[in-house]
Amino acid sequence: MEQAIEGTSYSNERSRLLTEALGKRAERTDIGKRARPGERIILILLFAAGLLSIFTTAFIVIFLGTEAVGFFQSRAWIYAKMTVVDQAVPPVSLRSDAEGAVTSTDTSLLLDLGDQPRVPLIPGTLIQIGDEIMRVVERRERSIIVERGYDGTEAVAHEAGLPILALKEDTVKITEALGEEDVRIALPEDVADSFAVGDMIHLETETMRIAAIEGSSLVVERGLEDTPVRAYPANTVVQVERRPTLLTYLTGTRWQPQTGDFGVLPLVESTFMTTFIAILTALPVGLAAAIYLSEYATQRVRAILNPILEILVGVPTVVFGFFALQFVTIGVLRPLFGVDIYNTLSAGLVVGIMIVPTIASMSLDAMGSVPRGLREASYGLGATKLETIAKVVLPASLSGVVAAVILGISRAVGETMIVAIAAGAGPNWTFPPNFTVGAETMTGHIARISGGDLSYQSVDYSSIFSIGLTLFIITFLLTQVSTYITRRFREMYE
Amino acid sequence: MTRIEEGVFRSMLIGRQDKGLTMRRLYAASFGLAILALVLLALTITNEAFGYVALVYKIEPETISDRPLAELNETELVALLVEKAPGQLPKMVSDALSPMDLQTFARASLKDSLAGKQIPAEYADKTPADIPTDERASVMGQILADNLTQEQILELIEAAILQPTVSESWPLFEGLFNRRAIEERLVELFPDEITRPELRFKSWLRLEMLTKPMDSNPLVSGVRTALLGTVYLLIIVVLTAFPVGIAAAIYLEEYADPNKWYNRLIETNIRNLAGVPSIIYGLLGLQLLVRFMGDPATGGLGLTSGQAFGIIDGTGRNIITAGLTLSLLVLPVVIINAQESIRAVPPSYRDASYGLGATKWQTIWRTVLPSALPGILTGIILSLSRAVGETAPLVVVGASTFIVQDPGLFTRFTALPIQIYNWTSRPQAGFRELAAAAIIILLVLLVAINTIAFVLRNQARRRLQV
Amino acid sequence: MTQNGHHPRAVDIQNISVYYGSYRAVRDVSIPVEKNKITAFIGPSGCGKSTVLRAINRMNDLVPGARVEGQILYHGRNLYAPDVDPVEVRRRIGMVFQKPNPFPKSIFENVAYGPRLLGVRDKNTLKEIVESSLKQAALWDEVKNDLDKSGLALSGGQQQRLCIARTIAVEPDVILMDEPCSALDPISTQHIEELMQELVSQYTIIIVTHNMQQAIRVSDYTAFYSIRKSGEGKEETRWGELVEFGETQQIFTQPQNAETADYISGRFG
Fold it and tell me: What is the ipTM of this complex?
């Protein structure tokens, strides 16, 4: 009872203190709505912070998209080419006996070399027999191997003894001077046919459109696109327009946008070459590390080993790039295998080291979520630890490991500095892939091209965005697949 | 049912266990590989950052004095300077002894500009500009001789008169273990014994690198401007990415109703952004921040290039655009880590706070955030470390590779990793070694950041557990 | 406290149902809670007694999708009326939870948390409030020299008393206790029970308990809840319902309902 009185006094004391400090707010039964504008403002600010990420993505997609569209509308002016007979190559003909005749499917041509000691046609040369154009693939002692029906011509049978003309490419030049008022451009024989009505051409900086083709000359509209109309002397080179199309972009094997080669394949190829080497390195190491951590390592060992993975994560990629060039290439691969100073092998190996932690930690997660019961069941049947790992844990965590590998691929594809330093400084299409020579990857190319002050209107500027979009799509899809597999995997065990 | 003989079973079991042991060693060896990679990385960097060089001089040291320079005293050395490089003496005094820059120094009296240093009494009230031209060099020389050690003056002579450049350089281990091959190579390069340079040990990592700006001569080039660039970038990231990231994490964890489509969209979106390659962020920064918000001359808004704030020659390729680009880059990582830490705060803390009549924000500010702080700090270490080493987006938004002036907010800039990248790619002797030295500085910076953050985190955690 | 004279009942639960989404977890509960008395809620697990308790200070509002129908009168005012602020409700109707949940702060800061929320900044006022709260919660003598120590460093029973001190520091009107002793040892339980007996002179207390002996020992009134079922198999739904309410003495000696009788004699659940 005494305590109760004491309690009342504490309580009254507090009521008094609160009333003094707060006034009417201390009232016990006042539960009416209070205005809290601050709470509302804070909510709006926090929401805005969350929304920022949506804007980031939207901007990425919009910018990559619009500049990529710009890229496909860009064009390069390149010298128009025509094929002419190469007078410098000594004359040869098909052998004049019965064996010299060729059917429409023969690829081996027997030659009559006359006084020549050896076949003058080097591989790669285009030759013409009758109306058919062929490409020399291989040179033998008295014969050549060719690719038939080249340049849209039809492969047909040829008689023995026909002359073989070696062809070469030459730039197309106008044959007569062109005045400011002239609309008729004179070209060498047979060349006008290779143009089409509607094509755009350039003489120096003037843009013209072909309105009609008459004999061996072109009738053009002059001074289009606000370009200055001038007079041109004979032998001015004709330039034709080259635009990228999705097809040439995705299938072309040369990348040189300024001179009209818009094939992204060399960049994609080397990206996947480095990625391939990287996964080949990282998968066994990362997986083994994960197995060790998950199944063997004691708590104490883990406490020592985990930081090693963390340090690997923390090393800046530019430092790895230095390592790839100075140690892996110059220190090891060059003395041992004589590789080029820049090569995709070294870059790939080091990218592999970089993604070991990614693969290890995701695989570790996957193995960690394999239920204990499964392992115990295996032990219960008398399996050793290794057998349990190989027959139970790994199969059960397989999709998790696959997701880890896919994420690793995505990171390797997007890695820039290692490949920019160690893989090479120019696009290089090699088929079959050659890992010992330099080849620029998508990321490496973007880094090199954007290194200077690019003009916002240049083909280079929009081209790096189109490569960026390609890269974005590839990594985005890989991340999605990885997330999807991970989620399915989790659902399986949870 | 067949029964396996006990003995057979045992021997099979031993075989199976042996195989297990082998594999176990293989698994453990994978860590050996990881450790090996790290060790090799460290050795490679050390190997390059220290080494041996053959220096060639613009003027051979032997030709300017009949005795070896090292035996000359201060006064004799200064006399050489006065004789060979009289015009450079005021700058040497100003650089070495005065806090002022050269122009201010020329117009301030010596007793002001060289306060606390020994100066000839009769000139104390004069400014360098006041001293007659024919006396100036000797007065300045006098001041140098009085205030500097012999070694310091030797350095000045080296920089001003001898002007050494690296002819050849060899990494540390080659110099230590393959000395003869190097000597032979030197003989081959310099058949004349008199002009043949001497092989010298050289530590490319020098303390002065921190205070000296970039130079085209690798012997004297420093990383001051790059280091400052990196520090400014970090400050911008800390000031922008962290508040925004933590705010977004609070929104997602405490306010967002996961049944609403837009909240789910934000959540998925952040996870996707975390997987976007850093170079794509570079492209984003280039187009959005550099081009559209940058230089009005190319159609931008002038916000990030500074025209909106009265800066005239800004291009938008500066610390601000680069810093904001890095912020966007680390934002998803900051958000995801902060979300995890906030989620880990026990719901009972929230209950207790609400039960006492706290509003939502009061609960978050007074209970949730303090409890989540150690975890949030860990996330911040991760993202800061990432920001320090990021190179690709900086290259794309247009970091410069050669900056001598300390960067301002709207000027061209460079950063440590950019410098490393640039030096690594240069063919001339000395630059890869310099890159290695810069890597060591970068790694030290990383370790420092991690240590600071680690201490902060532990303090925060201890406060929660007392 | 004159304004309370017209309403001797501190809290009057009138015919409430609690929904989670479309699921109606508790149906048609009515309980008049007398001022300065201890009312106990008993019943088997899942009967909805905690749900009703959390409805009284609108803690259920924090659960996404939770909704209350019917009304709870607090001094004659419906707690679920649109012009009522749930934050203010929780300050007047405090709560002590099943597991002691002190903040990871010092003992002083734990108790000062509520007054600080209200805007009390003066150090001396805070000190006085903290001291009187700890004294009233019978914890002062044990911690008066360690006010800077973390609340988490205390024993379980002390932590729960700290939570009670924290609750009374804002001078609530009603204190809700959700199985406050279920995580405690018998001696700590006894401390808390004694404390409740002292507090009831100033506050109205509602306690949820699993322990029927505890209900008998401490409460003046008891509400017995039970689980109802309908449908079979997949169609089956369960909900909680109030079976009987009355003076504790009467509930435990002369239950009106057969189910109550079964439960208190241990033949049920």
Answer: 0.90
